[in-house]
Design goal:
The complex is a heterotrimer of chains A (85), B (452) and C (348). Chain A contains 3 helices and 6 strands, in the order ββββααβαβ. Chain A has 85 residues and is an alpha+beta fold. The longest helix of chain A is centred in the last third of the chain and has 17 residues, at 59-75. Chain B is α/β, with parallel strands linked by helices and 452 residues long. Chain B folds into 2 domains: 33-53 and 312-431, Lyase, Ornithine Decarboxylase, Chain A, domain 1 (Beta Barrel); 125-305, TIM Barrel, CATH 3.20.20. Helices cover 29% and strands 24% of the residues of chain B. Chain B contains 13 helices and 24 strands. Chain B has helices spanning 39-46, 55-70, 88-97, 106-115, 131-139, 149-162, 193-204, 223-244, 270-273, 277-289, 307-310, 402-405, 434-438; strands spanning 4-5, 11-13, 33-34, 37-38, 50-54, 76-81, 100-103, 122-124, 143-146, 167-173, 187-188, 208-214, 250-252, 262-263, 300-303, 314-325, 331-335, 348-349, 352-354, 362-368, 377-385, 392-396, 416-419, 425-429. The radius of gyration of chain C is 20 Å and the shape is globular. The longest helix of chain C is centred in the first third of the chain and has 17 residues, at 94-110. In chain C, 47% of the residues are buried. The chains are: A alpha+beta (85), B alpha/beta (452), C alpha+beta (348). The interface between B and C is medium-sized, with 19 and 33 residues. Strand 5 of chain A pairs parallel with strand 1 (4-5) of chain B.
Chain lengths: 85, 452, 348
Amino acid sequence: MLKIKNNIAISDSGFVFDARTGDSFTLNTTGLEIVQLIKEGKDYQGVLQVFLDKYEVDPESFERYYLDFVATLKHMNLIEGNGED
Amino acid sequence: MSKLTFERPIIQRVNAGLPSKYGIPRRLEPISHIDGSSIRSLLEEFGSPLFVLSEQTIRKTYREAYRAFSSRYPNVQFSWSYKTNYLNAVCNIFHQEGAWAEVVSGFEYHKALENGVPGELIIFNGPDKSIEDLKLAISNNSLIHIDHFDELYDIIHLSREMNERPKVAIRVNMDVGIYPIWDRFGFNYENGEAWDAINRVMASKTLDLIGLHTHIGTYILSTEAYRIAAGKLASLAVKLEKKYGLALKYIDMGGGFASKNTLRGAYYPGTDTAPSFDDFAEAITSGLMSSEIKPDHLPMLVLETGRALIDEAGYLAGTVLATKRLSDGRRATIIDAGVNLLFTSFWYDHDIRPVEIVSDQTEDTTLYGPLCMNIDVVRGNLMFPLLKKGDHYVIRRVGAYNNTQWLQFITFRPNVVMLDMKGKPHLIRRRESLETINSQEEIPDHLKNFNL
Amino acid sequence: MEKIKVTVALSGLNNIDSPGPGIPVIRGLKESRVLDVRVVGLAYENLEPGIYMHDLVDKTYKVPYPSDGVEPFLDRIRYIHQVENIQVLVPNFDSELFTVMKSEKVLHELGINTFLPTLQQFEERHKSNLPEYGKKYGVKVPYSDTVASIHDFLKIQDQFEYPVVVKGKFYDAYIAYDLEQVSIYFHKIAAKWGLPIVIQEFVRGTEVNVVALGDGRGNVVGAVPMRKTYITDKGKGWGGITLQDQDMMDLTQKIFSQTHWRGGMELELIRTKSNELYMIEINPRLPAWVYLAVAAGQNLPEALVLLALGKEVNPFEGYEVGKMFIRYSYDMICDLKEFEHFSTRGEV
């Protein structure tokens, strides 16, 4: 299961603050939505369903961009856990 | 209920340290249409990538340039610089507008003749004219601009052999306060070589000296340099008239006017720094008018500007092949046109836009071409919208030099279309095919077969 | 007397170890006895201190870099103007001036006043044009030349004696003692500010400066000479003191009366051992130490805004000699919420 790290504060504007490192980040709307869904404990299938209902996107493309995004979050040390890997 | 447009999710580090290059992220306005024609449908019809040229823009730019000069000077003649873009459809627009042809090789010379330009309205420039080229140019009464003494002697020799009076001009190079000085073309002004060449032409008695020519450089932002150049050519003309009583037919100021493209390494964008045609015209004509040339003997002013007349009219549209992350987290976007098609990306930071409407979000992106080569970088580090595979892009101001310097490499050079005055597309150069490439090749008999 | 209410937008809020002139200019404006100024800050970076100095800056907006071009700049200004109704715009960075001058006509149509040099005045005082400038106006300047590559420099190397000063188009200057150092500084500056690079003869002596304001008709509205009493490793004044020096004042007068300079200016001069004044640079705006002039009796920022508004301004008479400034740093405590707001919405 993916988990947003403990010391990460996320505001509704998409501003992310990592209290452990002092770094800040910004998310775009879709990025923020995914992070919030992960925070709520949704797994990939759950996130996918929300996006398929709401956006003009096919599952294949979504998976590609989702995995790329999650990899970036990992690269930035914001999430832990090995999710679907 | 209709669904929302999906945008790639992204996260970006907030810059909280050293100043970045970007300030507030700048929204890149998409360009969906050229002259009312949808880029997306053009790509569907003619394939991707695709060069698109706008007849409207070419004519508008030409008329603007012509107006700038002709409203300040009584006798102005443009001559289309073939090397800048010698697609026949492009050349013919300029010829329809009244421009002569300016060529720098036998190939270009024949191209102009085949386009129907009368020989006496072709200016033949450059250091590479074969004896055959010269003979043809002489018998056609073309305007031969002499580049060096070897050529001067060849022409004198030919004039006697052919019993003709070749029409010639002397190309002059000079210091006009800019760097670099283009002293490899023509005869130098400051050290007296140009004056020597003039005297040599006059002494031959078999050549008609009808003009003086200079071409001070390329992508010149300083109008002052042109004023100085015009002044120096004018002073030679005055000296010539004093000594020989000869009034020149024309002074050719060449080209080199900057377009609105931004040079790599420049701080301000070219759209802010490139002088207008009016600025160039003001400098050149005032340089001539304030000289000692007698007002009733003002020679025709010839201009060979290429880049500034055609750059704006050219677009390169295409498709995003992939986006990926580099090892440091930066974004790489791979597009289907590389540096082999867009030679100018080596010295310009091209203005690249999305075709479809995208959100305000941008990220630090490098745009790579599709070639399997590390040098294939179309634009480094720019803040670019979040394009996805299959999205389209369009690169502005690619009309100059790309259709003449492009290289065929690993695939075919694409279609080129021209949008006519109503925005209707016409194919003006077909995409190459395997046949095009193979038709130039010969295989020796012993290499024709193999067994694997 | 009722104060004139005016909204002034200005940049240069980077009040850091190598400070921009924004905050000192604002201090002058806020202390004005004739103006009641609302200050709208224009910032490029999320951490420019001025953004968070609410006693001096009423509201700050993020703006695009001048290198993006005139159009993005004007788009942003139009937006800010809609909200704030800017009456006067004071660009405080050299790199902004070209863009603002190019936009001047549009700005005036919007009702935004400026008080800037003309493009011609601006261009001719460029570092790369200094030798011609010196000749034209009869001012002593060090020998200099412009290069676009190290190869260029090799060709003209013989004209110089080491050390030489390597200078960028807008900012940065380093003293180089050999070819290797020239090469290092050349690349360092070129990467940041582009080409060309100016190589200047190094004139030995004491650096002295004048801050001045011209009315555009050849008159000096105010001028205060100063010597930096201590210079940081970044070449910035840590402390300074106003001088009484007729030669410096005469030189200032000479330049202004000939060039008809319009707006603020900082003259960088070197006084040699033999007491000659060399002009090494003209900065086309008020400098970061302008508040010293305010304290010495010449509120030049106030005068500049009044001139921009089209008011008559009487030239200042005199200033206090021996007035000192000492620069200090101060750790301001800021709210993460504000940082968040500025970095995500571009205003605070």
